[in-house]
Design goal:
The protein is built from 5 helices and 12 strands. By secondary structure, the chain is of the alpha+beta class. The strands form 2 sheets. Strands 4, 6, 7, 8, 10, 11 and 12 form a 7-stranded mixed beta sheet that branches. Strands 1, 2, 3, 5 and 9 form a 5-stranded antiparallel beta sheet that branches. The chain is globular and about 55 Å long.
Length: about 200
């Protein structure tokens, strides 16, 4: 089942789906962010406020390893409503990116590892982020714009933290549309690729 999601993830980005966002390429690597609802990758705009966000990295130049810091250091988020006004973060949302500008050494934060491969085949499990409504106080119905920026280190086989920290790069912000529908019936589904 997870490979089905990964395949759909790849197909979605190849067809420039509206529900998925892609960063600009940085050193041949780019970041893709979408959502999953009931193990189904969402393919139509917009993503719902209660969909689980997922991210993966891809590389145009071959396989590389990346070390990503925890969300306080590695993931900055912002949301605006349909009028362009900033949306308040929840307590969880305030933790995201709270130390984003303080990341200088790989030892500043615990890190996880992921592979970035080409864009035409599955490259590991997608990594999850919370639902938009767990990060922001989306009280009113409407279309919101969620912006996510991530930074991580390219893996360097060295025990020296300074040497391993020279490869920090920031992805460009990824913007996706998120909907808080006015009257969403229970178990409602928007158009999506199914299992």
């Amino acid at each position: 089942m997870i490979y089905r999601i990964l395949f759909l993830f790849t197909v979605t980005f190849a067809t420039q789906s509206f529900a998925a966002g892609i960063s600009e390429t940085t050193n041949g690597v780019y970041l893709a962010i979408a959502a999953v609802r009931n193990v189904t990758l969402i393919t139509n705009e917009p993503i719902r406020f209660d969909d689980r966000l997922v991210w993966m990295t891809f590389c145009d130049t071959g396989k590389i390893m990346l070390s990503y810091p925890d969300t306080r250091y590695g993931t900055k988020i912002n949301m605006t409503d349909s009028n362009g006004k900033d949306v308040s973060k929840t307590a969880l949302g305030k933790r995201f990116g709270s130390k984003f500008d303080s990341l200088h050494l790989i030892t500043d934060s615990k890190v996880g590892n992921t592979e970035a491969l080409g864009n035409s085949y599955p490259n590991g499990d997608p990594l999850f982020l919370p639902k938009p409504n767990e990060l922001f106080q989306m009280d009113k119905p409407g279309i919101y714009t969620l912006e996510i920026q991530m930074q991580m280190f390219r893996y360097v086989p060295s025990y020296d933290p300074v040497e391993r920290s020279k490869t920090l790069f920031k992805f460009s912000p990824v913007k996706i549309q998120v909907e808080n529908p006015p009257d969403l019936p229970p178990n409602a589904q928007t158009n999506s690729l199914t299992k």
